[in-house]
Amino acid sequence: MNLNIQSLLRPFLKENIPDIRPGDTVRVYQRIKEGDKERIQLFEGIVIAEKHGTGITGTITVRRISSGVGVERIFPLHSPVIEKIEVVKRSKVRRAKLYYLRDAKGRKARLKAKVMGGAKHSQSPAAQIADIQKQATSEESPSTETPIEEKGKE
């Protein structure tokens, strides 16, 4: 792209866009204007396509199932109505476009979860809390138990 065009578009590019890939489950927060009121609407789904790169024209196609019907929305990455995008989960995929998910139902529509980082990051927050509680109780249990010999004397 021409340097003059790039310098004109630079102020409109967003800085806080995460690394989004096909197979990611994302939450897109979009500003909706209804009359004189403004609210933020959440759309959560699987990214089935990423097009036009990460530049000003970059878009993602997000799909979710709502009331048994597949709903797809195309979001421009640098649109001013997009408040923020969060990556909830990453999945292991072998395609750049996941259009086959449109026809897949049930078990065939599942994607394998990808491990994000170490063992601590691959668990859900509830599982992490449970592990911490187990470790705390296992460390306390030897010190709180009295030896067998002392029990017999009492």
From TrEMBL:
The encoding gene: rplS
One GO MF term: mRNA binding
Family, per entry: Belongs to the bacterial ribosomal protein bL19 family.
Protein's name in the database: Large ribosomal subunit protein bL19
Taxonomic source organism: Candidatus Wildermuthbacteria bacterium RIFCSPHIGHO2_02_FULL_45_25
Pfam (any one): Ribosomal_L19
Biological process per Gene Ontology, one example term: translation
Residues covered by region (Disordered): 114-154
NCBIfam families: rplS_bact
GO CC annotation terms, alphabetical: cytosolic large ribosomal subunit
Record's signal peptide: none
Keywords in alphabetical order: Ribonucleoprotein, Ribosomal protein
InterPro entries: Ribosomal_bL19, Ribosomal_bL19_CS, Ribosomal_bL19_sf, Translation_prot_SH3-like_sf
Keyword presence, Mitochondrion: no
Function field: This protein is located at the 30S-50S ribosomal subunit interface and may play a role in the structure and function of the aminoacyl-tRNA binding site.
